[in-house]
Amino acid sequence: MTLALDREKVLAWLSQRVPAARITHILGVEQTAGDLARHYGLDEAKARSAGLLHDAAKYFKPQLLLQMAQKEGLELDSVLEAHPHLLHADASAIVARDEFGVVDREILDAIANHTLGRPNMSQLSCTVFIADTIEPSRGNTASLEALREASVQNLYAAVWQTSDYSLKYLLETRCYIHPRTVLTRNWALQMARAQSPEIGNSTGKSIEQITS
Fold this sequence. Notes:
mainly alpha
């Protein structure tokens, strides 16, 4: 597909369906995912395409999200049924495919995985997952700056730490936590440790202290 032409079409479509602040976020994810992909030697154009489309269904009504998921044959658990908003990532991938003709599986998976992540997801998916949290319009807190620094040091460590960042927020706000977020976090930590054994060594000690 012609990326430049498609981009204008996507932006025109988004402008009719999401507020300006969300467009700013989407463009930030597009840029950040592309930057991370280039940094890690991945396909920058694919990362940018996934970033641009990742929130296409962000403002779809809950019932529509459920209908789309059911029609697609997606597995729905009690958390997703209670909070259909979590399905906007999968629904955005459906929009990318059906509305814009995206057929590249890696791009579609990166869109679908950007909210909850997924164990064994591709490195391209990792870039969009991370970018969704650290793109510039998210702010400049110390925690976000630490994540941005981590994102260019070890891709899997950044996924793990991004998951921890999300989990902390969900715990503090007493929100439901989807099991896939925890599974993604543990997988990413395992991958990061495999690459750099010194990463996360304090975790085991902390668990021992808690359970002793």
